[in-house]
Amino acid sequence: MFGNMGDMMGMMGKMKDLQARMKEAQEQLSGITESAESGAGLVRVTVNGQKKVVGLEIDNDLIKPDDKEMLQDLLVAAINKAMENIEPKIKEHLQKSTEGLLPNIPGMDLGNLMK
């Protein structure tokens, strides 16, 4: 009976380690960035692993009142592409940060622990 209690305590300790490591890993995500372009490089957006836009470059040719709608479309396209591109980097970072703490359970998505 006491053996099970020890196992439980060990499990609880591992969960605490995992939570601490996840928190640290999430904080480090701000240092991971990914950029994407749209309009053949006229718009460039950089996002970080916390899914925040951290950089935005717009070619001077696009800054004309008549091109406002096109500029908006290009911004949306570049932001969406950058967000898509950062996803695998986030997953990889979280997996590396929690390596050895959890058994690798197929189908378990660590990304869901972040929401």
UniProtKB/TrEMBL annotation:
| Coiled-coil stretches | 8-35
Q: Which UniProt keywords apply?
A: Coiled coil, Cytoplasm, DNA-binding
Keyword Lyase attributed: no
One annotated GO molecular function is:
DNA binding
State the compartments where it is located.
Cytoplasm, Nucleoid
Q: Which Pfam families does this one have?
A: YbaB_DNA_bd (PF02575)
Q: Which residues form the signal peptide?
A: none
Question: Record's InterPro entries?
Answer: YbaB-like_sf, YbaB/EbfC
Per the record, its GO cellular-component terms are: bacterial nucleoid; cytosol
According to its UniProt entry, the function of this protein is described as: Binds to DNA and alters its conformation. May be involved in regulation of gene expression, nucleoid organization and DNA protection.
Subunit structure comment from the entry: Homodimer.
PANTHER family, A to Z? NUCLEOID-ASSOCIATED PROTEIN YBAB
HAMAP family noted in UniProt: DNA_YbaB_EbfC
Q: Family, per the entry?
A: Belongs to the YbaB/EbfC family.
Report the NCBIfam families cross-referenced here: DNA_YbaB_EbfC (TIGR00103)
Q: Tell me what this protein is called.
A: Nucleoid-associated protein GBK04_11830
